[in-house]
Amino acid sequence: MRSPKAIFFDVGNTLLFRNQSRILAPLYQRGIYPTTEQLHAIERRTKGEFDEAVMHGGNVDHGFWHTYYSHLLEQFHAEDHQLCGTLVAATRISANWCVILPGTHDVLERLKQNYRLGVISNADGKIAEVLARCGIAGCFITITDSGLVGHEKPHQAIFEAALRELGAEAGHSLYVGDVYSVDYMGAVRAGMDAVLFDVSGAYRESGLPRVESMKELEEKLNAATT
């Protein structure tokens, strides 16, 4: 990993994670309680299928979560089109992404001492409010939301808009996100370096640059400067 001057972050499954008790409430009401490992396994499977679909022109946002929850319901023999739609809709509400992994804020505070930090997120125009409520908005100089920009990752335009707003050069910028076809490839095509934030281990065998925690990211950045 080259040492960047600017670092941009995805939000979902990178800075913030889903409020499972809120989003999965319809499942809990049916007595279905997926474990973390079950959810990670479904995420790994879905990312593989989703990356393949996007690389061949598939739908970016709706496609991922529809596939994810379809697999989840299938695993628990609870296939229900309406329930799947309810879960997808709840996941697309940015306010439902409000869980921060331990240490995230501390690492961001340290990183902003040495790098210009920004956010690039496929969201609903309200991601800045969510980051503020979660107490980390102040770590970022700019927050680029597809709901306001009018382009979603992996479209090059949203990365270019973020670079312009931050006053950063693509060749000296790093993007951190969790989906290969959307985050990694979108950033690379825009001329940026990229690293996958891979908590579920979906890309563990890919050979791609990846980390599983903010602490690991910080360690890799520190190593790149020495």
Secondary structure layout:
Elements: E1 6-9, E2 17-18, H1 20-23, H2 25-28, H3 36-54, H4 61-75, H5 81-91, E3 97-99, H6 104-111, E4 116-121, H7 127-133, E5 142-145, H8 146-149, H9 156-166, E6 173-177, H10 180-189, E7 193-197, E8 210-211, H11 214-224
Parallel strand pairs: 1-4, 1-6, 4-5, 6-7, 7-8
Antiparallel strand pairs: 2-3
Helix pairs in contact: 3-4, 4-5
Identify the notable features of this structure and list them briefly.
Rossmann fold, two-stranded antiparallel ribbon, alpha/beta
Verbal overview:
- The protein is globular, with a radius of gyration of 17 Å.
- The strands form two sheets. It has a six-stranded parallel sheet.
- Helix 7 links the parallel strand 4 and strand 5.
- Helix content is 46%, strand content 14%.
- The mean pLDDT is 94.
- It is an alpha/beta fold.
- It contains eleven helices and eight strands.
- The protein has two domains: 6-16 and 100-224, Rossmann fold (3-Layer(aba) Sandwich), CATH 3.40.50; 18-96.
- It has helices at 20-23, 25-28, 36-54, 61-75, 81-91, 104-111, 127-133, 146-149, 156-166, 180-189, 214-224, and strands at residues 6-9, 17-18, 97-99, 116-121, 142-145, 173-177, 193-197, 210-211.
